[in-house]
Design goal:
By secondary structure, the protein is α+β, with helices and mostly antiparallel strands. The chain is 34% helix and 26% strand. A 7-stranded mixed beta sheet has the order 3-4-5-6-7-8-9, sandwiched between helices.
Amino acid sequence: MKNLPDIDELVAIVREIAAAQLMPHFGQISRQYKADKSIVTEADLATQKALMTEMKQRWSEFDFLAEEMTPQQQEQHMAQAENGLWIVDPLDGTSNFAAGIPYFAISIALYYQGQVRLGLVYDPNRDEAFTATDSSEAICNGYPLKASHTPAELAKAIGVVDFKRLPSELAVKLVRQQPFSSQRSFGSVALDWCWLAANRFHVYLHGRSNIWDYAAGELIFRRAGGHSCTLEGEAIFQPSVKPRSAVGALDDDYFRQWTAFLGVESVH
């Protein structure tokens, strides 16, 4: 296997680009709408261009798959990923960014030989860099992320749930039965995984996220000791640009309670 890029060097690049391309325009930039009705701003495009330029200069052996490519380009790059592929979301949480809500991140993962080998999620609002490799622990600004004590019952948990993309029957069940004590929806998949890894909430559910949304954050979460699967009980990461559902909990007992409530029959 090739040597992994230096994470500290990658963090430094991302910090610099976030300061130059994102934060000066936070909440003050015009938006456009893509075919799927999601938002894209000038900051998304400028940040993606700057990241790809800087990263290509240092690690020219790896190709790129980025959110602001066309679907055809994304499919092509995913199909040709055998030599290594950066999976980049230059601005995860664009709607928050455009509205002035301080919850968004830059997400970068390195996919190589069938696995995600490196993940970085950078939150420029709090200057928090969440990182992990497939052989190292998850950290945030140098401090390890590990499972800590949580309430014993799911009924006392804080859950982050994106209702918009869930099957309607499951969404109704969650509303009617309310299995947790309180619920949030923050609007950045990559950062959601990292906050879950940092014990800032207890259980997670998303009905439909893209590979550039989850590739880095879900690796960081797993390296923190977290447990995850899709609603079908499969591993979340697949080398495909098709969207995936996601279920997660940092604590093993919570994960069993949560998947049982959701009706996930088995975890493959």
